[in-house]
Structure formats: C-alpha cells, structure tokens
C-alpha cells in the first residue's frame, strides 16, 4: 500500500511540474529520495509516469497536432512539422550521444540542486534581456527561432535545469513572446518526451514486470489527470506571472532540499 501512495504522489508531482519551468525530473529525483523510492525500478517508474503528461498534451492540443501533418518549408507556413523537427534535432542528437554519461553521472540529488539554481539564473537573465518580441503567437514562430529554441533545449539534458524553463527562456531570447514560447514548449514536449522515454523504457525493460503494473498505471493516471489541469492553468499563469517568480521557487526548493539532504 505504501508503494501505491508513492506512485500517486509521484504522479501528482510529475503532472504538476512537467510543464512548469521548475524541472519535473528534478522534483521526481528529490521526492524519490524523501520517499526512499530509488534504484533502477524507481527510475523506470519515473519514465512511465512521464507518458501520462505526454498523453495530457496530446488530448488538449489534438487539433494542433492534426494540423502539424502539414509539411511546408515556406518561411510563412505557420507552425508545422518542420518547426518541430528543427526544435528536436539538437537535444535529440546530444541525448543519443550523451545518454550513458547523463544517466550515470547527472541523476543525483546534488546535480539536481545545481540544475535548479543554474536554470533559475538563466530564466532571470532571459527575462531581463528584454529582447524585442517578433513572434506573438505560436504560428508566428519562424524556423530560425524553432532551431534556436532547440539549441537551448540541450541545457535540459542536465536534470534540474528544466526542459520547459530552458525552452521558454530560449524562445524569449530568440524573440518569441512568453505565451508563444510556452505553447511551443508544450507541443515539442510530446515527440521529445515520447522518444526519450521510449529509449529509456527499452533500456530498462528488465525492470518491467506484471506485478508492477498497478503501481505504474496508478502513477501514469495521476500524472495524466494533474497534467491536464496544469497545462491549462500554466497557460493562464504565464500571461500574469514573470519567469522570475518560478526562479525564486527553484532557489527556495534547492535550499530546502540541500538542508534536508545534508
């Protein structure tokens, strides 16, 4: 029963944090330490619950994903599959090349705390740069901006840095509005997370057993329900809240866990 409650809590945290610029991976690693839910089985569980968040975006943005089937390379094509490919390419390539190193050396509470602080500082810097907005909406984002956002997404390979935090900040630095950058982050997250999680699951297949099915399904369901609510809420929040507030939260979380762990 205790493990089922762990699954619920971790599913809730995944759903709440996946699309906020606060690092869902970092939260899961730190929460796993507090719950004493660690090891290869726990890492596999973390991968599974991410699919709940992916499913939430697919449901909420289903019409937008249908429109991505358009594949046009004209400069004024509106958001299409080529934008997504450009945004995925840098982090996808880096992830494949550095997968073993990242999993071996970067998935620890200490590295997460570093990522939380570094990511927060980057978000503050991006907001204070005050770059002129050239893309107010999702369809205004250019191919050049999409690729630039993809380059910034490489930073998220460091756990705790945050994929949404790096891409939203990168989008703002490349001239996208905060809202457009956030929505673009949601869209790109689906193929990016599905691909990365799929690779992780294949590598962790020995830890997938039928006895763990209830545990994984409960965590995935909790992540899906909470992520569905969080996606809508975050888009409304992003219109009102500055990234700096999320950065302050990251600093506070890092300080709290540093005190708890050490």
UniProtKB/TrEMBL annotation:
Location relative to the cell: Cell membrane
EC number: 3.6.1.27
EC category name: hydrolase
Keyword set, alphabetical order: Antibiotic resistance, Cell membrane, Cell shape, Cell wall biogenesis/degradation, Hydrolase, Membrane, Peptidoglycan synthesis, Transmembrane, Transmembrane helix
InterPro entries, per database record: UppP
Pfam families in the cross-refs: BacA
Superkingdom, natural source: Bacteria
Keyword Transport: no
GO-annotated molecular function: undecaprenyl-diphosphatase activity
Membrane-traversing stretches: 44-61, 82-102, 108-129, 181-202, 214-237, 243-261
Topological relation to the membrane, as annotated: Multi-pass membrane protein
Residues in the signal sequence: none
Substrates-to-products reaction catalysed: di-trans,octa-cis-undecaprenyl diphosphate + H2O = di-trans,octa-cis-undecaprenyl phosphate + phosphate + H(+)
PANTHER family tied to this protein: UNDECAPRENYL-DIPHOSPHATASE
Function: Catalyzes the dephosphorylation of undecaprenyl diphosphate (UPP). Confers resistance to bacitracin.
Family classification: Belongs to the UppP family.
Note: Bacitracin is thought to be involved in the inhibition of peptidoglycan synthesis by sequestering undecaprenyl diphosphate, thereby reducing the pool of lipid carrier available.
Name the UniProt record assigns to this protein: Undecaprenyl-diphosphatase
